[in-house]
Each structure stands twice: as structure tokens, then as C-alpha cells.
Design brief:
Blueprint lengths: L2 E3 L2 E2 L14 E8 L4 H12 L6 E8 L5 H9 L5 E4 L10 H10 L5 E6 L2 E3 L3 H11 L3 E10 L6 E3 L24 H5 L4 E3 L6 E5 H7 L10 H11 L3 E12 L7 H9 L1 H7 L5
Parallel strand pairs: 1-4, 3-4, 3-6, 4-5, 8-12
Antiparallel strand pairs: 1-2, 6-11, 7-12, 8-9, 8-11, 10-12
């Protein structure tokens, strides 16, 4: 099994004709908000991914340009990791889109969106890549998300849009039931209408087709991305074999409430008949 971390061969393998196959290039975009320890953990998990003929470059979107991050990267000489600084406005929800704008001009096969507070299974990325490589109809694919403190309890498993009523808030309530393993093994992917950007793999050419757009609100940006991809004719999928664990936190605050109400903009954009 061979993988490349910015061109460096991390797992040695005897050179064969198969080594001359196309190298899959993945841009990893991580949005971070002063979570240094969590970010370092994610970077370590990325380095442990079991990949085949894959080269990955990491782009950290940090609007605070944390000096600890810069020092960490210099200490380990991580030339394959680039820090992007979109603005100095705290809580700016456009960071992911700044990263998308940056990598959209570069040559990649796929773009992996990641949160900075997740733990990655070693096969998290490879299973997402396999889905996009084997199923041309899929435009983007997400991972199955478990709670890190309750590693067998599902936090998110994709979602469907409620077509009967408008909801300004996104609810990610705990799902006590654990999905049947036979169900997970019987399907290559599960068709959904949206999946979380905590771990989401997008085709680069899909992004070029729909264009990079600036989001206006928090919590709905990944839903907006999925709906745009679906509207362009691609399937939104979830691969349950791609697993991550998320450090969930209580996000209750006045500015979160503001963004939740602001999310009504998206209902006006996609389902004005419900307003």
C-alpha cells in the first residue's frame, strides 16, 4: 500500500507496473478556530491514513494565524501544509469557502473538507476516494460521524431535507440506535440530500462546474454545498465505511442564535414556497 504526503513515500513498496498508474491528488482543507491540540491530532491522523497511489496536500484555514500552528509546522518541516489567512474577523463563517476558492485554481482530483476537532479512522479517506472513483454519478461523499466520548453512538449519518416545514436551526440530536452492520455492508453508499462537512470529499471538477460561492451563515454551509451539487445533477452520498469521531460541544450562545436565524436565507433560496 503506497501513499504520498506531499510527494513523500510514507509506506515503501516494491516498484511495479501498477506504480505507474495515475496518482490521485487530494487537497485537504481544515478550518480551525484556536484549537491547537485538536488540530495537531487531526494532522497526525491524516499522516496515518492508509492510502494507495495518493498524494495529499493540507491547507489550514486560520483567520487568527495562530503562532503555535506556525511554530509546529516549522518544527516538523511540514512543507506539504500551507496556512491560509482569509481575514482577521473572529467567527467569520467564510473560511471553508476561502479554502475552496484557493484550491479551485489548483490541479487536484478531490477536495477533502475536515473539521479541526475530529479523530479519523485510518481508512476514512481511502473509502471516500473509492466511492468517487467507482461511482461517477456521485458528486460528493461524506463520512459516518460518531461521538468521540461515546464511540459507538452515531452523531450524524447524512440527512434528508424536511419538505413540509421551514426550520431555521440545524438539529444534530443524538441517535441512540446503532445501525445494523448488515445494512452497512450491503450498500456501497447511501444516497442522502446532505452530509456534514466534518468529513466530506468533493470532486474538484464538480466544484469547477458549480463555482465557488461565499456563504452567509454558519451551520448551513455544508447543506448549501450539497444542494448546489445535487441541483447540478450529481448524487450526494454517504459511505458508512468511512468513519470519524467528533468532539461535540455545547454551542449555545447569542451569536450562534443569530446565525441560526440567518439560515432562513437558505430556505428562501431553495424553498421559498415554504416561507
Amino acid at each position: 500500500m503506497k501513499s504520498y504526503f506531499s510527494g513523500f513515500l510514507t509506506q515503501p513498496e516494491v516498484q511495479t507496473h501498477s506504480s505507474l498508474r495515475h496518482i490521485t491528488k487530494v487537497a485537504v482543507i481544515i478550518e480551525t478556530h484556536q484549537k491547537f491540540n485538536s488540530l495537531c491530532s487531526v494532522l497526525e491522523d491524516i499522516g496515518k491514513q492508509k492510502l494507495y497511489q495518493t498524494k495529499i496536500d493540507v491547507y489550514i484555514v486560520d483567520n487568527d494565524l495562530n503562532s503555535k500552528i506556525q511554530g509546529y509546522l516549522q518544527k516538523f518541516n511540514f512543507a506539504h501544509i500551507k496556512v491560509l489567512q482569509p481575514s482577521k474577523k473572529p467567527g467569520d463563517s467564510s473560511n471553508f469557502y476561502y479554502g475552496l476558492q484557493f484550491v479551485s485554481k489548483l490541479k487536484y482530483d478531490y477536495i477533502w473538507l475536515l473539521d479541526d476537532d475530529v479523530h479519523l479512522d485510518p481508512l476514512a479517506l481511502s473509502t471516500l476516494i473509492t466511492t468517487l472513483q467507482e461511482y461517477d454519478e456521485v458528486g460528493l461523499v461524506g463520512s459516518q460521524v460518531y461521538y468521540r466520548k461515546e464511540p459507538k453512538t452515531i452523531q450524524e449519518f447524512g440527512g434528508l431535507i424536511n419538505g413540509k416545514q421551514v426550520q431555521s436551526k440545524i438539529s444534530c440530536g443524538k441517535k441512540e440506535n446503532i445501525l445494523n452492520e448488515e445494512l452497512l455492508q450491503s450498500k456501497p453508499y447511501i444516497r442522502v440530500e446532505h452530509c456534514t462537512s466534518k468529513s466530506l470529499l468533493l470532486r474538484h471538477r464538480v466544484l469547477q462546474h458549480i463555482g465557488v460561492f461565499k456563504n452567509f451563515c454558519l451551520h448551513f454551509d455544508d447543506v448549501d454545498l450539497c444542494l448546489r451539487v445535487k441541483k447540478a445533477g450529481w448524487i450526494i452520498a454517504l459511505n458508512p465505511s468511512s468513519i470519524i469521531w467528533h468532539n461535540s460541544e455545547n454551542l449555545g450562545s447569542s451569536w450562534i442564535d443569530y446565525y441560526n436565524e440567518c439560515n432562513l436565507y437558505y430556505w428562501h433560496k431553495y424553498r421559498p414556497d415554504l416561507l
